[in-house]
């Protein structure tokens, strides 16, 4: 796994903390701890630009043939963000202290690029997404929220764009995060980040 530092996160972790995202390489690095328990921001509530809070239970990305259950991720005892378990049946994980898909703010979903001896992770092909590709989040209340990819970036871990990923936005957006780039002794050198915004076209 790799540490993802950030200075501002809409759900209120506070300055100077960190998130961790699993890369499924079988290696890990210790990142800085989050300074406290996240709290839901008022910007994450229902508004004319977003939907009410209903947790995601499934994620579909047709362009890369992803159709995965979504589990909930919280904080580990050391203050780091949990990552999906490394299993043969890999799943994506929604960070439950972020907005739900469709609420105003950046909803954060993490996934592995590889899962050790089990092979490719659920987000193995995330870097192949292109602008305009659609992402469908199925919610617990039976509705679906559709996003369109606005950009895909591969960045060195040391240059992780924290403010762009976790900073406040005035509309519903989605962030999908995994690892990428060259393999190292600690896993992978980079992170792959998909930025997406709410799409008004029905699924």
What labels would you give this structure?
203 residues; mainly beta; Sortase, Chain: A; eight-stranded mixed barrel; two-stranded antiparallel sheet; 1 helix; globular; disordered N terminus
Structural account:
The chain is an all-beta fold. The protein is about 0% helix and about 35% strand. It has a single domain (about 1-35, about 55-200), classed as Sortase, Chain: A. The protein is built from one helix and ten strands; from the N terminus they run E-E-E-E-E-E-E-E-H-E-E. The strands form two sheets. Strands 3-4-5-6-9-10-8-7 form an eight-stranded mixed β-barrel. A two-stranded antiparallel ribbon has the order 1-2. A hairpin with a 4-residue loop joins strand 7 and strand 8.
Summarize the structure.
The protein has 203 residues and is mainly beta. The protein is built from 1 helix and 10 strands.
List the helices and strands and how they pair.
Blueprint (H helix, E strand, L loop, with lengths): L1 E4 L12 E4 L34 E6 L4 E8 L18 E4 L9 E6 L23 E6 L4 E13 L5 H5 L5 E13 L2 E12 L5
Parallel strand pairs: 4-5, 6-9
Antiparallel strand pairs: 1-2, 3-4, 3-7, 5-6, 7-8, 8-10, 9-10
Tell me the number of structural domains: 1
Profile the largest sheet: 8 strands, mixed, barrel
Q: pLDDT average, as an integer?
A: 78
Output the structural class: mainly beta
- CATH T-level fold name: Sortase, Chain: A
Number of strands: 10
CATH architecture: Beta Barrel
Q: Count of helical segments?
A: 1
β-strand amount: 35-45%
Sheet with most strands: strand arrangement: 3-4-5-6-9-10-8-7
Supply the CATH superfamily name. Sortase
**Poorly predicted tracts of residues:** 1-22, 24-48
């Amino acid at each position: 796994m790799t540490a993802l530092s950030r200075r501002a996160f809409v759900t209120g972790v506070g300055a100077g903390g960190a998130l961790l995202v699993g890369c499924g390489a079988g290696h890990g690095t210790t990142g800085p701890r989050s300074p406290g328990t996240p709290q839901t921001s008022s910007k994450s509530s229902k508004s004319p630009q977003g939907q009410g809070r209903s947790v995601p239970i499934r994620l579909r990305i047709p362009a890369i043939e992803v159709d995965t259950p979504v589990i909930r991720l919280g904080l580990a005892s050391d203050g780091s963000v949990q990552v999906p378990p490394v299993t043969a049946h890999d799943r994506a994980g929604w960070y439950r202290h972020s907005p739900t898909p469709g609420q105003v703010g950046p909803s954060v979903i993490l996934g592995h690029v590889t899962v050790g001896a089990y092979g490719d992770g659920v987000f193995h092909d995330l870097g192949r997404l292109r602008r305009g590709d659609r992402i469908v989040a199925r919610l617990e209340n039976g509705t679906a929220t559709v996003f369109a990819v606005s950009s895909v970036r591969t960045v060195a871990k040391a240059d992780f764009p924290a403010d762009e990923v976790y900073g406040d936005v005035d509309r519903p957006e989605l962030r999908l995060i995994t690892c990428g780039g060259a393999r190292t002794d600690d896993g992978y050198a980079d992170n792959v980040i998909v930025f997406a915004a709410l799409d008004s076209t029905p699924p």
